[in-house]
Amino acid sequence: MDYSLITTSISLDGYKVTKHLGVVRGITVRSRSIIGNIGGGIQSLFGGRLSIYVELCERAREEAFQLLVQHARERGANAIINMRYDANEVMKGITEVLAYGTAVVVEKAE
Known about the structure:
By secondary structure, the chain is of the alpha+beta class. Helix content is about 35%, strand content about 40%.
């Protein structure tokens, strides 16, 4: 799938949706390690950007995104519209990250 055909918009400029394939999603559940918590705690003492947590969050979002793309491909989509992220704490230190959107088939508009 061409990543330029994944958008948070409800349409893709220059393309016509020919088929809606329904909601697709990618979900991952992540926890922080003891070492990560210690490192993050030390970073928080000094203030500023908490790179340990930024990296953890970015990896979780990327994994959810890749699972979303995989789910859309399995449905036969060549694009995803109205893509969103959501995150919830399942329990202390364990976070669910969800990427979701609408799988569609598009073609170049004339």
